[in-house]
Write the structure tokens for this entry.
Amino acid sequence: MSALTKEMLAFEPAITFEDVSVGFDDGQVLRGVTFQVQERGTLILLGETGTGKTLTLKMAAGLLTPNSGSVIVLGNEVSEMKERELLAFRRKIGFVFQEGALFDSMPVAENVAYRLREDGVADEEIESRVREVLQFVELEHTLEQLPSDRLPGR
Ligand SMILES: Nc1ncnc2c1ncn2[C@@H]1O[C@H](COP(=O)(O)OP(=O)(O)OP(=O)(O)O)[C@@H](O)[C@H]1O
Ligand SMILES: [Mg+2]
């Protein structure tokens, strides 16, 4: 690979939306959305309720396919990927849902451990990594609680 190509790749945006439109039976929600986010960049989407912020994120994560236009994330043309390719792609990105999106019947520790278990990580490693991240967000005391359990003092 030439030095020039490497340099060009270094500046490739992490996310590119080009002329993206999406809608449902009752009409178009987003029309001609075009933007780029550079690696380590931050983009804030502001808009009234129902204007399509969550739909935009869902398209970036490959959870929703646009009606037209192109969505490119980390060099992948997400808008054209098959479900099988999308499964592998989603392992590389993070997505915090607007609602909790937790498994109500599983304790907090198991909710956090879910992806690691899917990947076949050893039990001891799962335990220490779960404890570490929960400690980091000062929620270590909730390990055994269910998502619906009330926090002490609330
Ligand atoms: N699966 C769907 N079927 C039909 N309409 C949908 C669907 N998903 C979203 N919509 C509609 O698309 C529009 C945009 O929704 P979206 O959830 O992206 O809004 P938002 O900007 O995230 O709003 P909020 O600020 O309330 O979170 C809304 O009118 C919503 O009702
Ligand atoms: Mg939303």
The first strand starts at residue 15 and ends at 24. Helices lie at 3-10, 53-60, 83-90, 108-118, 123-136. The pocket of magnesium ion (ligand 2) is lined by residues 53-54, 98 (CB under 6 Å). The mean pLDDT is 89.
